[in-house]
From TrEMBL:
MF terms (GO), sorted A to Z: DNA binding; DNA-directed RNA polymerase activity; zinc ion binding
Zinc recorded as keyword: yes
InterPro entries per record: DNA_primase_core_N_sf (IPR037068), DNA_primase_DnaB-bd (IPR019475), DNA_primase_DnaG (IPR006295), DNA_primase_Znf_CHC2 (IPR036977), DnaG_bac (IPR030846), DNAG_N (IPR013264), DnaG_primase (IPR050219), TOPRIM_DnaG_bac (IPR034151)
Residues annotated as domain Toprim: 259-345
Cofactor: Zn(2+)
GO CC terms: cytoplasm; DNA-directed RNA polymerase complex; primosome complex
Upper classification of the organism: unclassified sequences, metagenomes, ecological metagenomes
HAMAP family: DNA_primase_DnaG (MF_00974)
Pfam families linked: DnaB_bind (PF10410), DNAG_N (PF08275), Toprim_4 (PF13662), Zn_ribbon_DnaG (PF01807)
Gene3D superfamilies from the UniProt entry: 3.40.1360.10, DNA primase, catalytic core, N-terminal domain (3.90.980.10), Zinc finger, CHC2-type domain (3.90.580.10)
BP GO terms, sorted: DNA replication, synthesis of primer
Name of the protein in its database record: Unannotated protein
Alphabetically ordered keywords of this record: DNA replication, DNA-binding, DNA-directed RNA polymerase, Magnesium, Metal-binding, Nucleotidyltransferase, Primosome, Transcription, Transferase, Zinc, Zinc-finger
Amino acid sequence: MAGKIRARDIEEVKSRVNIADVVGEYVSLKNSSVGSLKGLCPFHDEKSPSFNVRPMQGFYHCFGCGEGGDAYKFLQQMDSISFTEAVEKLAARVGYELTYEEGGASVDQGQKSRILEANNAAAKFYESQLMIDEATTGRDFLKSRGFDKSAAEKFGVGYAPKGWSNLTDHLKTLGFSIDELVVAGLATKSDRGAYDKFRGRLIWPIRDTTGQVIGFGARKLYEDDQGPKYLNTSDTLVYHKSSVLYGIDLAKKDISKRQVVVVVEGYTDVMACHLAGVTTAVATCGTAFGDEHIRIINRLLSADKESPAQVIFTFDPDAAGQKAAMRAYADSHKFSAQTFVAVGPEGLDPCDLRSEKGDAAVLEMIEAKKPLFEFAIKQKISKFDLSTIEGRVGAARAAAPVVAQILDPSMRPAYTRELAGWVNLEGNEVAALVDAAAKSAKQDAVKDLRRDSAPEDLVDLMTKDSDAGDRFSQPNLADPISRFERQVLEVLVQIPESFQADQLIRIIRDGFSTPAHNAILEAIGNSLSSLGSDEWMNSIARSLEPELQSMLRSVAAQSLPAKNKEELIRYGQGVIARALINALAHDKANLLSMLRRADVADDPQQSAQIQQDLVKLEAERRKLQGI
């Protein structure tokens, strides 16, 4: 049975990890407010950032989809791993040795760790083999593509010897079993034991965003090799080709910094781009560019509308390249960026272009990019004979749906005019075709919606929402009372240094009108012993019902109107003062009510005491208001 990690170790590891660094490897984060970072949510598609990270409190929260938690939960969701695996991954990151109460690590994590260890050892073995005599063909291939020894070392390029079990035999001497090598995708079982998956090929290690080797890409070198030109690691516990981008480990920092991604078609193209100075280049690994790849890229891009990010595709001019370009165009709306196409002179890809014309030519190719919409429109037009009226009208009709899909209200008319010029037709004629295409697309969308959402389905959805029946309904923040209660909670959770314990007790005693807000307020009161400590947020969370955890994260992640720490504390003190004034007003109303009662009116001593209490309340109010 897998051992349980000691609770003290779990907390210790979390305290040593900066959640912003962990999240930052997957999401491009920018400063938001004091102590808060913001980026595009990796858990749902969005154009405007609603994903917040609070490094000091050690949690994240998305105001768009409600996802949130600590560094462990983030890794669990992003890497599809268990809680134990997340703890072990972060412990390895900070160099902390975990203690297992029952001994032994989790089975899955142990297996994943062994795969990564085997991959790392294999990468070193392949790299060392590039210098043997047999690898001359591989070295010649690299030289023919313009890559010297230092370039090969930079990207860890290696060579898999022709023999059946060179790698397997080597890794067995390091303590790896055949079963482990098979699970890692490095070997294949046979009647005689196992044989290497990659033989007589040039090898590229494929790394994840953290730089760990998760798989390999291998290129054929010899005519007698009956396999495909490129062979990749099969899917394993750590390698999933549909969600892997070659070069992402080298490119991620510059992608986040420059907000530009260059998508090329192969390993050598990535190498050529990086060596030429295009350090944001990545490539898919033996599969078409898909939704998972888009999500990876979007996590690194911001949604700054004033200076939008750019995704630049490079495609071969052949039929396969054209098909890939149109597929990219179909998905262009999914990017949190503007999309472009860069085509090399004479149809050269980045690797051949660099080899023939040098680094500057690669940079010029990327700089000469054209919008993907323009590329797609011209692809449609190229199929028609524009020397005839029939051809020009046919070209306009074929390209009109592409223009109709442009959502930018200023871009669509501009491309409509461009299309009219390219096909040599009147602008109003082409505009009519574009409008007709847009109207047809809307009608098709309505038909699809009606077909996919039958009336009974809609009833089920409505019932599901209305029957959710949580104990705490969502507060109406349009109501000024409810909104102010939320402001007070934001200050109590985020700025504990802006109030004293006795002030908190006074606010708790007064209470809130909204049940959900009041429950959080009570949890804050139950955590009073942690006031001023690093455990403040965690203590509140532990005292709160599970169904309110998301609301607590929302409260803790909300940006506050302050530019620095001093302004933040002043803001907090102001909100607390208003809350205390409200509490005093409630106390005053209660005392006045008591004073009017007959039994009190007949008791001079009690009446006098109430009068004294009213005077004290008024003095407190004036002090709070600075009168």
